[in-house]
Amino acid sequence: MELAAAWLVERFPDGLEERDAGGLSELAVFTDGTGESAVRAAFADVSSAPVLPGWEDRWKDFHRPVRAGGLWIGPPWIAAPPDEAVVVADPGRAFGTGAHPTTRACIELLGRIERGSVLDAGCGSGVVSVAAARLGFAPVVAVDLDEVAVEVATETARRNDVVVQVFRADVLSEELPVVDIVVANIELRIVEQLLGRSVAGVAVTSGYLESELPTAPGWTHSDRLELEGWAADVFAMRH
């Protein structure tokens, strides 16, 4: 169920609902014919029906607050607790609400390591970047190849009143700043290639299943966190 939900929420961030169907959990997305075709191509058991009144706001029920690394992470329509460190993330055009296990795991692992400068490689909505700033890392730089992600990450930083330098870059081919820690919550193949670029002394990586581990020549594996079938790891560069 978690894998299916992760696949759906990445592609349909504006319309995902989880509901009970006779003792089973059913995931519903609100989309058009093109989106329906994509879902049918990915899953064997799919049905469709016209939407009911109020569907425009029903997707909000799926996005609930979570906690990671001592931070409360939630959407703007839910009041944040006044006595906690908060990251407000608005689900929308870029992947990353903070709720996905890989995102939470990255933030948890960041909370365990010595503070320093951070590069969030493939930042998506910027949740990890903002969380890093909240945890005391500085400076924080966020990059993504997608222009929309750059816009959303910039807005996420502004909404949370933290300083994050955001710009567009291909993490595999373009020049990147040299930092103390690089965070890469992206697919395994890209994680492995990024580790080969040696842009940091410590790497926090995720975006893959708990059965997988990045091949990282020149790095020492120092920590791992597994959540709901996904994994995140910490590597230190060998000197």
Can you describe what's shown?
This protein has 239 residues and is an alpha/beta fold. The protein has 2 domains: 60 residues, no CATH class; 174 residues, Vaccinia Virus protein VP39 (Rossmann fold, 3-Layer(aba) Sandwich), CATH 3.40.50.150. 27% of the residues lie in helices and 29% in strands. The strands form 3 sheets. Strands 8-7-6-9-10-12-11 form a 7-stranded mixed beta sheet, sandwiched between helices. Helix 5 links the parallel strand 6 and strand 7. Helix 4 packs parallel to helix 5. It is globular, with a radius of gyration of 18 Å. The mean pLDDT is 88.
Architecture blueprint of SSEs:
Blueprint: H1 2-11, E1 16-21, E2 24-29, H2 33-42, H3 55-58, E3 66-68, E4 71-74, E5 85-88, H4 101-110, E6 118-121, H5 127-134, E7 140-144, H6 147-160, E8 165-168, E9 179-185, H7 188-195, E10 200-209, E11 219-227, E12 230-237
Helix pairs in contact: 4-5
Give a brief rundown of this model.
The chain folds into 2 domains: 2-61, no CATH class; 64-237, Vaccinia Virus protein VP39 (Rossmann fold, 3-Layer(aba) Sandwich), CATH 3.40.50. It is 27% helix and 29% strand. It is built from 7 helices and 12 strands.
Order of strands across the widest beta sheet?
Answer: 8-7-6-9-10-12-11
> Which topology of the largest domain does CATH recognise?
Rossmann fold
CATH architecture of the largest domain: 3-Layer(aba) Sandwich
**What best-fitting shape do the alpha-carbon axes yield?**
globular
Compute the number of helices.
7
CATH superfamily of the largest domain: Vaccinia Virus protein VP39
Radius of gyration: 18 Å
CATH class group of the largest domain:
Alpha Beta
Through-space gap between termini: 42 Å
Question: Low-confidence stretches at least 5 residues in length (pLDDT < 50)?
Answer: none
Please give the domain count: 2
Mean pLDDT across residues: 88
Largest sheet composition: 7 strands, mixed
The fraction of residues in strands falls at: 25-35%
Order of helices and strands: HEEHHEEEHEHEHEEHEEE
State the helical fraction: 25-40%
> Which oligomeric state applies?
single chain
Give me the count of strands.
Answer: 12
